[in-house]
Design brief:
Elements: E1 30-33, E2 41-44, H1 46-51, E3 55-56, E4 63-64
Bound molecules: zinc ion (2 copies).
InterPro entries: HVO_2753-like, HVO_2753-like_ZBP
Protein name: RNA-binding protein
Domain Small zinc finger protein HVO-2753-like zinc-binding pocket: 16-61
């Protein structure tokens, strides 16, 4: 029997920049680096891609389709 002691690793899923929902593996999502800041990774889920929902970089405020 497994003894869960509370040290189980947390799975942190990336969050969609457009709708703030968790990105699920296998979804038609995409990730890319912000054009303005090379350290900022932007995730978009499949539905936001289809809807061409705008995204906004949290660091520099850059937004685009
Ligand atoms: Zn989304
Ligand atoms: Zn940025």
């Amino acid at each position: 029997m497994l003894d869960l002691d509370g040290n189980s690793p947390k799975i942190s899923l990336p969050v969609c920049n457009g709708c703030n929902r968790h990105i699920m593996p296998g979804d038609n999502n995409v990730k890319f680096i912000c054009p303005e800041c090379p350290d900022e990774l932007i995730w978009r889920c499949g539905s936001c891609r289809e809807a061409a929902a705008p995204y906004k970089c949290e660091s520099c405020g850059f937004s685009g389709p």
